[in-house]
Design brief:
With 142 residues, the protein is an alpha+beta fold. The protein is built from five helices and three strands; from the N terminus they run H-E-E-H-H-H-H-E. It binds zinc ion. The site of zinc ion has 8 residues, from helix 2.
Length: 142
């Protein structure tokens, strides 16, 4: 699927890069993503005026390592799907569900399945009390 739901474990307080980088460093990371995107969402391809930076993580559950894989520039609609937990709390699940089905060219059952799988991974990863962070992705910016 092009557009996936990515739920960050509750214990990953540092997963928001903005909180660990200086403003200038975060700005450099963000701008590099925007430059690569060239005005279009890197997931759905929509040409939008305002792109949002999204941190992509991968999880090595065996070794409890959370690795920053990429920072991508996405449109608001895709970002809402990725963070479906927060979006639902704010009442936007229906809109996000519709965007998920459109971008992935799939039906409601596929959306429910993806949501269930994301929630299962989330619960599993929450059992790990402390994740080690691998931020080697950022080396080129520092
Ligand atoms: Zn998009």
């Amino acid at each position: 699927m092009k557009l996936e739901i990515e739920l960050v474990p509750d214990s990953c307080w540092y997963s928001n890069l903005r909180s660990i980088l200086s403003a200038a460093q975060w700005d450099a990371v963000r701008r590099e993503a925007y430059a690569r995107a060239n005005g279009a969402c890197m997931i759905c391809g929509a040409k939008v005026r305002r792109l949002e930076a999204h941190e992509r993580w991968e999880y090595d559950e065996e070794n409890a390592v959370q690795r920053l894989k990429d920072v991508v520039a996405v449109c608001h609609a895709c970002h809402e799907v990725i963070h479906i937990g927060r979006t639902s709390l704010l009442g936007g699940e229906e809109r996000a569900c519709a965007h998920f089905m459109k971008v992935n060219d799939c039906g409601y059952a596929d959306y429910r399945k993806a949501l269930k799988e994301a929630n299962e991974a989330h619960r599993r990863r929450n059992r790990i009390a402390e994740w080690k962070l691998d931020l080697s992705y950022l080396k080129k910016f520092l």
